[in-house]
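ligand=NAP
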Amino acid sequence: MFQAGIFKGKTALVTGGGSGIGYEIARQLLQYGAELYISSRKPERLEVAAEKLREYGPCHTFPLDIREVEQVEALAAHIKAESGELHLLVNNAGGQFPSPAEDISPKGWQAVINTNLNGTWYMAQTMAKHFFLPQQSGCIINIIVDHYRGMPGMAHTAAARAGVDNLTKSLAVEWANRKVRINSVAPGIIQSSGLEHYPPELVAQVAKTIPMKRLGTTAEVAEAVLFMALSEYITGETLYIDGGSRLWGDVWEIA
Ligand SMILES: NC(=O)c1ccc[n+]([C@@H]2O[C@H](COP(=O)([O-])OP(=O)(O)OC[C@H]3O[C@@H](n4cnc5c(N)ncnc54)[C@H](OP(=O)(O)O)[C@@H]3O)[C@@H](O)[C@H]2O)c1
C-alpha cells in the first residue's frame, strides 16, 4: 500500500503493541522500515509479540502502565538512551467494559477514564516534551472509539475518548508551528483481541448492523494509522474506520 522503506530512519512507539490492533500497527511500521518500541503492562505478552515482530525489523519492549507518570517518564528516558530520537507515538493502549450507565461503579468509571484519557495524555505530553517539541518534529496518533453518536452501553469510554478527540484538536493547534502533528483514528468494531472481552453472541450479531455488513480488520486500522502518520498537512483530525457505522445502524439494543 505504501512505498517500501517509507519509515526508514524513523523511530516509533506503539502502546499496547503486544496484541490486536497495536500489534498490527507495529508490524506494518516495521515492515515499512521503522525502528519500533512496544509497551504495555504484561512483560510476557510483550516479549512473545516482539519475538514475532523481529521477523520484520528491530523491535524493543518496555513494560509500563500508561496511568503511572513515573513509568511513562522512564520509558522516555529509555528511548532517549537507546535511540536518541522518537518520531511517532501511537497511543493505542486502552480498554473498557460494557455496562448500563447506572451500573458503572466509581472504581470502574475511574479505571476507564484513567486509562483511556489520563494515560493517553501522560504519554502525549511526556513524549512531546522529551522528543517532539525540542526536535521540532513528531507525530502522535491516538486510537479512540467510534463515539460519533455517543456510545450507549459504554458511556465511560466514550466520555474518555471524546476527551482525547478534543485534546487532539487543542494540541494540534498549540503544537502546529513547532511541526508536531496530532490526529486520531476511530475504529468501529474490529475483529481483534479486544473483542474477546465481549459475549460472542453479541459480536456475531454486530456485523449485520454495520452498513458494510462486516467487522473491520486490524490491517485496515493499521493502514489508516500509517496514512495519518505520513500525511504531512493533516493535523487535528479524526479518521473513522468503521464501515459507515457512525452514520447508520444500532450496534446493540438498549434495554
Ligand atoms: N477491537 C475493537 O473493536 C476496537 C474498537 C474501537 C477501539 N478499540 C481500541 O483500540 C485499542 C486496541 O484494541 P484491541 O482490540 O487491539 O484490544 P486489546 O488487544 O485488548 O488491546 C489493548 C492493549 O492495551 C494494553 N493496555 C491496556 N491497559 C493498559 C495500561 N494501563 N497501560 C499500558 N497498556 C495497556 C493491553 O496490554 P496489557 O494488558 O499488557 O497492558 C493491550 O495490548 C484499544 O484502545 C481499544 O479500546 C478497539
